[in-house]
Design brief:
Elements (H helix, E strand, L loop, with lengths): L12 H10 L1 E5 L4 E3 L7 E7 L1 E7 L6 E8 L3 E2 L1 H6 L6 E4 L4 E7 H7 L3 H68 L9 H22 L4 H4 L6 H29 L5 H4 L7 H29 L5 H14 L5 H21 L2 H18 L3
Antiparallel strand pairs: 1-8, 2-7, 3-6, 3-8, 4-5, 4-7
Helix pairs in contact: 4-5, 4-9, 5-9, 7-11, 7-12, 9-10, 9-12, 10-11, 11-12
Length: about 375
């Protein structure tokens, strides 16, 4: 009955048989208390069948918190058996007809002539197991502490990254406000120098500084050949579907707003090739920043599905378009949500950059941004 219990591995068959004769077999039903935390006892328990649950009293609330389960073939109550110390936790049965062989140290001494020799053998095994458990717990504790340190560092890095984004938002908002006050006839949206400056200050600098401070590699953000084909496929499919949807919207708007002529404008690029290339670079770098923000938020919130990361990132990018009015904010939020989901599928920048570029060109052609 007890020959397979690890705690008795140093004993021979005759010694194990002596223990079996001295044991009392008890049965418990779910919820029955086997031993209580703090009580004094010299009994050791051998779980013959069923399962038990271990509980510890939480100091602040005084509630019993389950922290472990044990199954047949395991023993418990060893320390009280060895030195008579109070029970360190409460244990109750978890399954019907849980059978436990209970050995009292004093009863065993009274019944068996060489009881002390057998007890010493059990004590040696217990000491070894306690030592191994302490080492295991120490390693786990160190691992937990390191994980907590890493999480704190990641949160500090994210706070720095958030500061960069808010600083960039403040700069672009201030510049737009100054232009509106002192140069009312100047249109920054059609100015090549302004677009380049916007790309560097608002997108490129936060992306590069934030990436390095967050310890994110470029490949982790999406500058990689990994998942290139599915990313490109997603980009082409979403771009085509989006172009058709935009064209349908343009046709509807032409009916609602006479003379708007959105359907014919949508396929005509108003800028030069240089501006087109700059906008392509802008789309890529902006998606680089989006990737850094989205991934850092996912890590910060432990957001496995990534939905919160997509939504919060969309809010960030909507904030960057506050100077351009409500229409720009709404279009940016909708676009950012689409870009975020496209990016989340492969974590590769190629596909989402293509979608960003195509959608942006169509909106610019229609005069909506």
């Amino acid at each position: 009955m007890l020959e397979n219990f690890a705690i008795l591995k140093k004993l021979n068959k005759d010694q194990i048989l002596e223990i079996e004769k001295a044991c009392k077999l008890r049965s418990y039903n779910p919820g029955d208390l086997i031993c209580k935390e703090g009580e004094i006892s010299d009994e050791i328990y051998f779980l013959i069948s069923g399962q038990v649950e271990l509980y510890k009293i939480e100091e602040n609330t005084q509630n019993n918190l389950k922290f472990k389960e044990m199954s047949e073939g395991e023993s418990f109550g060893e320390m009280s058996f060895v030195d008579g110390s109070p029970r360190s936790c409460s244990i109750q049965a978890a399954t019907p007809d849980t059978k436990i062989a209970v050995l009292s140290k004093q009863t065993f001494i009274d019944l068996v002539p060489d009881a002390f020799k057998i007890i010493n053998g059990i004590s040696g095994t217990i000491t070894q197991q306690v030592s191994e458990n302490l080492r295991l717990l120490s390693d786990r504790h160190i691992g937990t502490l390191q994980k907590q340190i890493d999480e704190l560092q990641e949160r500090n890095h994210f706070a720095y990254f958030l500061f960069l984004i808010l600083l960039s938002l403040f700069i672009v908002t201030s510049v737009n406000a100054a232009i509106a006050d002192f140069f009312p006839t100047y249109n920054p949206q059609t100015s090549l120098p302004f677009l380049i400056g916007y790309l560097v200050v608002v997108v490129l600098i936060p992306a590069l500084l934030g990436r390095s401070h967050l310890n994110l590699s470029f490949s982790a953000i999406g500058v990689t050949t990994r998942n290139l084909k599915p990313s490109l496929r997603d980009g082409v499919v979403v771009s085509i579907v989006g172009a058709i949807a935009f064209w349908g919207i343009a046709l509807v708007l032409d009916r609602i707003v006479p003379g708007s002529d959105f359907a014919s404008k949508i396929w005509t690029w108003p800028g030069g090739s240089v501006v087109l290339l700059i906008y392509l670079a802008h789309s890529y770098v902006q998606e680089l920043l989006r990737g850094a923000v989205q991934i850092s938020i996912e890590n910060f919130l432990v957001d496995r599905k990534g939905r919160a990361g997509i939504f919060i990132t969309a809010l960030f990018f909507g904030m960057f378009h506050v100077p351009y009015g409500t229409q720009a904010i709404v279009l940016t939020l909708i676009g950012s949500l689409i870009f975020g989901f496209v990016y989340k599928r492969t974590y590769n920048l190629v596909g989402v950059t293509l979608v960003h570029f195509v959608f942006g060109i169509l909106l610019i052609n229609m005069g909506l941004i």
